[in-house]
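Input/output pair, single chain:
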Amino acid sequence: GTLQIGDGNIIACRTGITTVTDFRRMDLAAGGQGAPLAPVFHNFAFRHMSKHRIVLNLGGMANVTLLPSHESNDDIIGFDTGPANVLLDDWIYTHKGETYDKDGNWAGSGEINETLLNLLLDDNFLKQATPKSTGRDYFNPEWLQRKLSQLETQPPAVDVQATLLELTAVSIAEAVKHSKLAVDELIVCGGGAHNCYLLQRLGANLPGLEIRSTEPFGISPDAVEAVTFAWLAMRRIQHLPGNLPSVTGADSERILGAVYEAG
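Output:
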């Protein structure tokens, strides 16, 4: 199932703006997972004629869109790789009272605990076949505490932060390596695109791969998700499909969303 927050009727009446909401349930009704929906926009905005690209969104979760070149006949695939910022943000807030780890500086000052890293990577979701999606209902402080409780001695908090960041980098790198796509470029968006240390660790785990922000494409890395749903709303108004069955697992392309007229 999916939980939708916000009533399109009220938003349309109070703003005087025609409102499109509830993008996921039609895909769910068609046998899909209702997520991720961003890959259909990534295909529109970032696909290249001859280069194979991966778009990486670093929000609470990390999700990737595999964009084969236009010359290729391969399917576009999109899925969540695991946690991105969610565990890092929770951990630094608990231990330092800060809402996020600016530039990854705190993580960068710690040591990666290999025993803990292996415990974190030994996870059913990370081993699951694609398509797959996850969220805070799975990767949360309770999940982390269960892993930490398996250690004989508790590492310093800063080392846990360093190890959580490495979990993000390694799980993304493994997804890229197992994609069977000879990737030329990794295009990064979301809040995590500003985490310099995370990008450094991604580069270390994916040597030789060019890592770029969405900024040169004319979209701020912080705005990609908002632009995606504005674009999906436009697709709904134009009666065009907004999902990719190869990504969500739906039985066919579907027009997504409910429209609430302003007047």
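The beta strands are 19-21, 53-58, 61-67, 77-83, 185-189, 210-213, 258-260. The longest helix spans residues 157-177.
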